[in-house]
Structures are given as structure tokens and as C-alpha cells.
Amino acid sequence: MARAPFELSLLGGATERAWRRARPDVAKLAWHTLDADALPRALVAPAQRFWTGMAFQEHRTAACTAATLQALIAARAPVDLVAHAAGFVGDELAHVELCARVAQAIGGAAPLVHDPDALVPALTPGLSAFGRACELALRIYCVGEAFSLALQQATARAQRHPLLSAVIGRIARDEAKHAAFGWLFFDWADELVDEPLRAALRRVATEAVEGVAQSIERGGADDGATFGWLPRRRWQTVARRALDDDVVAPLRARDLL
Ligand SMILES: [Fe+2]
Ligand SMILES: [Fe+2]
Fold first, then answer.
1. CA of 71 to the centre of ligand 1 (A)
2. What pLDDT, on a 0 to 100 scale, did the predictor assign at position 221?
3. Among 100, 195, 202, 251, which residue has the fewest nearby CB atoms (within 10 Å)?
4. CB 121 within 8 A of CB 139
5. Ligand nearest 178 Cα, by number?
6. Mean pLDDT of 188-200
7. Ligand 2 centroid to 124 CA: how many Å?
8. How far apart are CA 17 and CA 33, in angstroms?
């Protein structure tokens, strides 16, 4: 397993200016209103760890949306559908920057080591280009993105700090498009999925849903003071409902689970 520190940078100059023009709302947020000194001492380190972890999750999602994009191109999916998904890579990079900036504003990122070769899940061996596009659309969008939308929305609503509410609300706005994409993809792909591929996809869906269900039972931050996350019980309640209503039900309706 390769291990590398999770550290990011901006090139600056004309490249950064073009990035700012493409996402003008990111730099305009009231970043100066975040202040580590205003946080209870005991909350600083957990908040730095949380926002560094969030930046990493968004970084991993950027890699997953890029891998899905490549698979959609190789599968010769409809050009307008592929172009729609192409925009999501930039969205995720904007989310990386948003989360990294929160960490920076509260005293800096926490140390984090990761495996750059394991950002994208391994796929079922032997699939065609179309099969790979289906598996990635299923894993990344029908499960991952569809699951996280309701959590992002609930987390944004729960924030008392205006900047945290703006950052998470800004991310959730993009995630609404991402959460719908898997279903849009299968509206097109469904009639092209043969029985062996459907059986493989159903196995993938079962395993992915089980993985999320286990993470819900394990997961969530401790109850008590928070800085951008939901208390454990609230998180688990929203997460269980999101998994049932936004992932399992639509997968079953499409005979993918
Ligand atoms: Fe994101
Ligand atoms: Fe997303």
C-alpha cells in the first residue's frame, strides 16, 4: 500500500484567476468570520480533524467522479449525459477547496496519510466498458452521492455559524445534481443491461448498501459540541432514512437490488 501525506496546493496566477471566475462564490464567502480563538479549546483539534477528513472525502469523490467520467466516455454514453457528468469533477474540486479552507481558517489541517492508489474502488473483473460505467454509476452515484445528499442538507440546516452553514449549503446545492445522476444514467442504460450484467450489478449494490449500513451503525461523531457535523444520534437517524428512501427504494424500483 502506497502511503502519502494528504496535502494540497494552488498554482496561483492566471490559473487561479480562471478557477475563481469559474466558481466565483467560493472566494466570496466570509472566510474572515472563522476564528480558531473563538472556538472552545477542546473543540479545535476535533474540528481540524473533521474538516481535513471532509476535504479528503471530497478529494476521493473527485477521483471517483473522474473515473466514472472516463468509463462513460469509453462506453460511448450519450455525449450530453457525459458532459453533464464532466461538470461534477470541478464541483468536487471546489468542495475540496471549501473544506480545506475551513480547516486552514481554524488553525490548519490535521496530519492525514492516505493511499493515492486506493481512491477509486476496485471493480468487478472482466466487465465491458459499458459494464464498468454501470458499476461506477451504481457505486459512486446511486449509492454514494444519493446517500450523502440528505445528510449534507440536514447538516447545513443545523449549523449556527453562518459561514459553516454557507459552506455546507453551497456543497449541498451541487450534491443535489450529483445525487440525481445515477438514476438519470440508468434511465438511459437500463434497456442495455443484459442478465449477467444485471446479476453482477445486483451483487455490487448489495455489498455497497451493506457497507453503508455498517458505517451508519459504527459511525457519526460523538454527541456534544460540534463544528460542522451532526451529533451521532441525529446523524444516524438521517443516515438510516437516506439509505432506505434515497438508495434502497430507487435501486429496488430499477431491479438493481
Ligand atoms: Fe462533494
Ligand atoms: Fe458530489
1. 19
2. 67
3. 195
4. yes
5. 2
6. 97
7. 23
8. 23
Q: What is the pLDDT of residues 237-249, one digit of tens each?
A: 999 999 999 999 9
Give first-to-last CA distance, the chain, whole Å.
Answer: 32
Shortest CA distance to 100 belongs to which of 136, 132, 149, 62?
A: 62
| Residue for grid cell 486506493 | 118
- What is the 16 CA–ligand 2 centroid distance (Å)? 22
Measured CA to CA, the distance from residue 227 to residue 133 in angstroms comes to 37
Residue 113 parent element (H or E): strand 113-114
CA of 38 to the centre of ligand 1 (A): 27
For residue 3, what is its C-alpha cell? 502511503
pTM for the full predicted model = 0.95
Q: Which ligand is nearest to the CA of 94?
A: 1
Residue 75 Cα, ligand 1 centroid: separation in angstroms?
Answer: 24
Query: Cα separation of 146 and 18, whole Å?
Result: 30
Helices 41-74 and 79-105 pack at an angle, to 10 degrees, of 160
**pLDDT of 220 over the 90 cut:** no
Q: How far is the CA of 68 from the centre of ligand 1 (A)?
A: 15
Over residues 18-55, the pLDDT tens digits come to 999 999 999 899 999 988 888 888 889 999 999 999 99
Which residue type is seen at 82?
V
CB atoms within 10 A of CB 76: 11
Cell digits of residue 82: 457525459
Q: Compute the distance from residue 172 Cα to the ligand 1 centre, in Å.
A: 8
